[in-house]
Amino acid sequence: MKILRTQTLRGPNYWSIRREKLIVMRLDLENLANRPSNEIPGFYEGLVEALPSLVEHFCSPGYRGGFLERVQKGTYMGHIIEHVALELQELAGTPVGFGRTRETATPGVYNVVFEYADEQAGRYAGRAAVRMCQSIVDTGTYPKAELEQDLADLRDLCANASLGPSTETIVKEAEARNIPWLLLSARAMVQLGYGVHQKRIQATLSSMSGILAVELACDKEGTKTILKDAGIPVPRGTVIQYLDELDDAIEEVGGFPIVVKPLDGNHGRGITIDVNSRPEAEEAYDLASAASKTRSVIVERFYRGSDHRVLVINGKVAAVAERIPAHVVGDGRSTIEELIEITNQDPNRGEGHANVLTKITIDKTALNVLMRQGYDLGTVLPEGAIAYLRATANLSTGGIAVDRTDEIHPENVWICQRVAKLIGLDIAGIDVVTPDIRKPLREVDGVIVEVNAAPGFRMHVAPSRGLPRNIAAPVIDMLFPEGTPNRVPIIALTGTNGKTTTSRLTAHIYRQTGKVVGFTTTDGIYIDEYLVEKGDNTGPYSASVILKDPTVEIAVLETARGGILRSGLAFNQCDVGVVLNVAADHLGIGDIDTIEQMAKVKSVVAEVVSQKGYAVLNADDPLVVGMVPQVKGKIAYFSMNPDNPIIKDHVRRGGMAAVYENGYLSILEGEWTLRVEEAVNIPVTMGGMAPFMIANALAACLATFVQGVDIEVIRQGVRTFKPSAAQTPGRMNLFNLGHHHALIDYAHNPAGYEAVGGFVRNWKGEKVGVVGGPGDRRDDDLILLGKLSAGMFDRIIVKEDNDTRGRARGEVADLILKGINEENSSLHPEVILDETEALEKALATVSEGGLVVIFPESVGQSIALIKKYQPVSEEEG
Ligand code: ATP
Ligand code: ATP
Ligand code: MG
Ligand code: MG
């Protein structure tokens, strides 16, 4: 077997609209192509032995064991690999379920499609699945050690890619509310919402966290002073810089017991608490001083009680946790060292911040803390006795958390909410030391020790005991208060032909509303009227540039087939999805071999239209109309024919449509006809002579109308839209050369030629075509091009591209000639292989008022050539 290509999809795609995260592995089965699993001796047994949990896969039979049954009876290797790739991820702790396997047009080559949780892990699982199956085919087994290694690697990949527990909870809540999010490429920053409505978070800092507040919280002394001035109970304490100040400091805080800590520490480093003697105090001083960058040491009174974390979000207490330092509980038999080992076996304990809890480490601090309790690692603890391994309760040093949200005294709630306001933090973690959070701090001598910016959420979301709290909800409530938008309208446009033109026109109409429009097309990314990036920008990367932009109020996205196939859409929902047409083009690329498959690719855009949104569909194209059953949103049709039965039926039922009637572009709404404008007044329709441009304009009018844009505004838009050759080179560029006209169009498929033909046939004077085609098209396509040309021109000069794309010189011309003569043997076409020569000949011989049309190899060269003739004007197109 050989993996030919691996693609990672990240949005709605050809295989699934809902399953956005898919790996598509193009797999050549090679010598296994004609060997179903039942014909490979020992394969079934080897597979069951390696992965017994595959019994859980139902597969098509629909019951437990269904998949294995199919392996036993005989199924193809691609299908087995799909299931193995899924199961490996499942065993690594990331459950996934969706898979599809389809043979391509090349016999023995399959597309194996399966879901992933983390994309690197997904790709790894695909490779590992191939390795495993190949090994079972060759040797009958897959070594256990190999599997263990695969699973360990998968777990590592997932852990490394994880966002961190706090970010994860916020993102999950956003997803639950259908708020889109994207990871920005720097600083683990997450964007929630799109465009102008976006907010950001970084761990639990939000775009609403003020810099003054965060800085103040990081300054422990400053914080304490501000709080003390406001009458909040804080530890009595003082800061010293030299050892000889220690005695005065101890006296100042009221004598022992005391706490000694670095002024600028965190995570409990350098802290000694419950210090009761002078020698101990000196040792603690050295420790703290060494841990401080500025050699500044805080001496504080020691307050009895346990550590509590009160989380205040947007002015309200959201959760309270009591935190207990890393400890073990005796059983009367085991030593402390053994107890630690037992405690660490808890699967909830991991390294660092990755898991719910963190493993307890035995280090110098732990030994010290034990010693102060009169223990060492060898001590056998009596049953029920507690030995602490840390003085402070950070989860990251092995502590645990107990939820106390329902127990906190109302007065303490009031105090903590005031504290958050005094510091100015939107999300504040307030450290409270008190013997009993159920009583007012003042009554039991409790104090506020510190206020943390960017507090961890782990202890509240997954406390060791008590109720887990959804604290992401108030964060999202704060960032997006009820009724405020989080998305900008997305208008996505697809189709074989006319995407760029229609996208530009749609964006232009929206700009008349005064909103900032971001749009992407084949020629670039634009925001407002400015170019952001030049080049073919019709994929998910370009779309995300628009959706990330904080000024964009409306997104208009040309959405081409290439991007959909390569990585799926950049958005999981749009407000308007326009499908212009589906014609034969790009077939045979990316395993899309038939026009029906191509329709399914483009249908993705219609299928992601939200329930309240509109799919704007071409009623004249049966493949587009065929998408309707999959659409969840509402439908609006456009048609060149007001009598199109689909349109008639649709409006009779109260639906919306746009049609070309009596020379007008009109919107039909129920029984009413709203005339937008007469085609002759719409430059992009070339005075009403280019029918396909009328169709494009109808789509643009409808796409804006369904979004509530005023008909006056739409009229203004279609009247003033004049794309130039400079803006859209090769797209119906018409030049008035005084004596005659010249048209340059980069039509590149039969539907495109037909479209241009629609315009040419409307031309009153002589029509001369300069016709050629790319050499990599099939013979039949070139013959068809000849036929189509014969149907539209009075006179034809056949030319060839410089680049013959593998054909002998003259071969393309012969095929085109063949087509012309089959269609009309009286035309007597001339053959001039050189493109420039051919065009010059046509321009020199066309009669007055005539039209020369060229389908050039190089648009730039042809435009330059025509510009030499000094056109009177460049007409719209
Ligand atoms: P972290 O980064 O975990 O917040 P830190 O290095 O910022 O720790 P503090 O928050 O000042 O240090 O103190 C850590 C812990 O030590 C407190 O949560 C509390 O349990 C204990 N502690 C600190 N000062 C006192 C005090 N004056 N009386 C009693 N306990 C104290
Ligand atoms: P691409 O796939 O190259 O990005 P596109 O879909 O963006 O193409 P446009 O750039 O708008 O299409 O138009 C390209 C050419 O396609 C036009 O010059 C014209 O020849 C033809 N065309 C445009 N609109 C239509 C249409 N509605 N039906 C058929 N052909 C069209
Ligand atoms: Mg602290
Ligand atoms: Mg385009």
UniProtKB/TrEMBL annotation:
Organism the protein comes from: Pannus brasiliensis CCIBt3594
Gene this protein is translated from: cphA
Protein name: Cyanophycin synthetase
Keyword line: ATP-binding, Ligase, Nucleotide-binding
Family annotation (Gene3D superfamilies): ATP-grasp fold, B domain, Mur ligase, C-terminal domain, Mur-like, catalytic domain
Signal peptide location: none
Reaction(s) catalysed by this chain's protein: [L-4-(L-arginin-2-N-yl)aspartate](n) + L-aspartate + ATP = [L-4-(L-arginin-2-N-yl)aspartate](n)-L-aspartate + ADP + phosphate + H(+); [L-4-(L-arginin-2-N-yl)aspartate](n)-L-aspartate + L-arginine + ATP = [L-4-(L-arginin-2-N-yl)aspartate](n+1) + ADP + phosphate + H(+)
Subunit structure comment from the entry: Homodimer.
Molecular function GO labels: ATP binding; cyanophycin synthetase activity (L-arginine-adding); cyanophycin synthetase activity (L-aspartate-adding); metal ion binding
Domain ATP-grasp: 224-480
EC number(s) per entry: 6.3.2.29, 6.3.2.30
